[in-house]
Amino acid sequence: MATMQELASKEGSFSGGHRMCAGCPVPIFTRMLSRVTDYEVVVCSATGCLEVASTIFPYSAWKVPWVHTAFENAAATMSGVEAAYKVLKKKGKTDKQIKCVAIGGDGGTYDIGLQSLSGAMERGHDMLYICYDNGAYMNTGIQRSSATPMGAATTTTPVGKESSGKAHLKKDLTSIMVSHDLDYVAQASIHNPVDLSKKIKKGIELDGPAFLNILSPCIPGWRIDPSSSVELARMGVETKFWNLFEVEHGKYTINYRPRKDVPVADWILAQGRFKHLKRPEHKHLLEELQSQVDGQWARLLKLAGE
Asked: Which domain, by its residues, includes 96?
């Protein structure tokens, strides 16, 4: 693996001048796609923040072949691209070494695109699917998704006399992908470029389907300052809300262990979408969230054989 300085010196697959929100950390991983591997990369993006903000006609921030597809079928579209490439190679019509990457937000991955994703993974298409998890349908108005944490205020789970925000726990999509018996599944965070770049490289260069779930704070959706997105991602990992691990051929490896126990409330209450949880009547929600975090860390330790 090249050093971070060497990676940064290579041309990225994503240019400046895009129209992502100021402070949005998503371009951190999009620039890495062509830097971490010597393969040529083809990218497919589901409708969402990344797609809308990077390809406002007639401009594009992408420096690699790129396909826009619907909200629900990025994995299916990339399945077709991958199958077509294999046919061309078999017929001797290309000698290029190409790898396929599909990208979607949590709305287009956890929810609308889950069927498409599951099908592509089950069929064994040679692709890396990357989900940038920002915890809601941010592009269409900050509506709740199944990735939204319990207690979060969104436009479809507003806070009021009859509601304390989203009432349900966050879906564990990474575990669902592990259940597909893939050779590579991982969680990463936008704040740790070394770990993130290694996981993107593994996923791209693997011969077969791979899935990578990335924690990616959203400035307007999380109601945070544009300068704090990377720090909020780091806090999500330090509080064990979002653990960094990978599953290779069924074997779990924990990539980072927080040195001390940091209450998940420190992360929760640093975000405007949870500001109502500061009120005493919502104390039980913070306790329930802490219990969930403690439980998922204990489960991860067990799965890693510890």
From this structure: 4-303
pLDDT level of residue 5 (50, 70, 90 thresholds): confident
Report the amino acid identity of residue 296. Q
Evaluate if residue 148 carries a pLDDT over 70: yes
Q: Measured between alpha carbons, how far is 234 from 245 in angstroms, rounded to an integer?
A: 15
- What's the DSSP call for residue 163? E
How many residues are given for the chain? 306
How remote is the C-alpha of 79 from its chain's centroid? 19
pLDDT band at 162 (very low <50, low <70, confident <90, very high): confident
Cβ atoms of 121 and 76 closer than 8 Å: no
- Whether 19 has a pLDDT exceeding 80, the answer reads yes
Q: Tokens standing for 150?
A: 């319990």
Pairing of the two strands 66-69 and 40-46: parallel
Provide the number of structural domains found in the chain: 1
Mean of the per-residue pLDDT values for the chain?
95
Nearest C-alpha neighbor of 241 from the set 272, 210, 262, 223: 262
What is the CATH classification number for the domain harbouring 290? 3.40.50.970
Q: Which long-range contacts (CB under 8 A, 24 or more apart) does 173-178 make?
A: 173/106, 173/109, 173/110, 173/114, 173/131, 173/133, 173/146, 173/147, 173/213, 174/211, 174/213, 176/118, 177/121, 177/211, 177/213, 178/247
